[in-house]
Amino acid sequence: MEIDQWRREYLQGGLQRSDLAADPIRQFHVWLEELVKADVSDPSAMCLSTADASGQPSQRIVLLKGFDERGFVFFTNLKSQKAWDITANPKVSLLFPWHFLERQVIVRGEAQQVEDAEADAYFSTRPRDSQIAAWASHQSDAITSRQVLEDSFEAFSKNFEGQDVPRPEFWGGYRVVPHAVEFWQGRASRLHDRFVYRDMGDGEWQIERLSP
C-alpha cells in the first residue's frame, strides 16, 4: 500500500471574495444547501474536537441539529467524554468534511449548554427507540458486554411502555458560539482557496483570505 502516493487534484471550482456572504452563517447556509442538492449522505455530520483539562484532545463525529446567528447546535449525553471535556474547557472546534464538493468548513468557538426547553423540544422529535437509547446508554462508560446495553434498552422499553419517553436530565445540547469560521475550497496544484470570518463584535465579521 503506497499511501504516500495517494493523491488527486481538486478541480470542481474556486472561491472568490465576491462569492462570499457578509456573515458566516449565511455562507454556511448557502454551502449546506448546495451539499443537500448534491444528494450527499449525512450532510449534517461534523467532527467535534474537544480537549480535557490536561490538554488531551479528542474527536468524534456528531450531527448538527440546528444553526442560526447564535451558533451551531448538537445534542448528547451530558455525562459523556465530550461533555466532561467541555465542562473543563469550553473551547471547541467543528469540522464539516464536505469532500464530495471538495470543501471544508471549520468552526472555532465556545460551547454553551442550551436551555432545557430547547433540549426538550428536540428530544420530543427523536424516534422513540432513540429516546429510549438515551436512557439505556451511560455514554463513554465501560461495559462488560453488548448484552448489558441491550438488556438496559429492553428494561427501559418496558418501563416507558404506553407513555411518552421523557428527556433524561443527563441528556441535553450545546451551542457552539463561533469566533472564527473558515471556508475551504480545493483548487488545482494545492493552491486552495481559504477564507476565514473573524468575529469583531456587535455582529460584525472581518473576512480574510488565507494562504493555502
UniProtKB/TrEMBL annotation:
Pathway: Cofactor metabolism; pyridoxal 5'-phosphate salvage; pyridoxal 5'-phosphate from pyridoxamine 5'-phosphate: step 1/1; Cofactor metabolism; pyridoxal 5'-phosphate salvage; pyridoxal 5'-phosphate from pyridoxine 5'-phosphate: step 1/1
Protein residues bound to substrate: 7-10, 65, 122, 126, 130, 190-192
The reaction(s) this protein catalyses: pyridoxamine 5'-phosphate + O2 + H2O = pyridoxal 5'-phosphate + H2O2 + NH4(+); pyridoxine 5'-phosphate + O2 = pyridoxal 5'-phosphate + H2O2
Keywords: Flavoprotein, FMN, Oxidoreductase, Pyridoxine biosynthesis
Keyword Oxidoreductase among UniProt keywords: yes
Record domain Pyridoxine 5'-phosphate oxidase dimerisation C-terminal: where: 171-212
One Pfam family matching this protein: PNPOx_N
Claim: ATP-binding is one of the keywords in the record: no
Cofactors (names): FMN
EC number: 1.4.3.5
Enzyme type, top EC level: oxidoreductase
Residues of the Pyridoxamine 5'-phosphate oxidase N-terminal domain: 33-156
Cofactor comment: Binds 1 FMN per subunit.
GO biological process, one term: pyridoxine biosynthetic process
Gene Ontology molecular-function annotations: FMN binding; pyridoxamine phosphate oxidase activity
Binding residue positions for FMN: 60-65, 75-76, 82, 104, 139-140, 184, 194
Quaternary structure annotation from Swiss-Prot or TrEMBL: Homodimer.
Family according to the record: Belongs to the pyridoxamine 5'-phosphate oxidase family.
Function, in words: Catalyzes the oxidation of either pyridoxine 5'-phosphate (PNP) or pyridoxamine 5'-phosphate (PMP) into pyridoxal 5'-phosphate (PLP).
The protein, known as: Pyridoxine/pyridoxamine 5'-phosphate oxidase
Source organism of this protein record: Microbulbifer pacificus
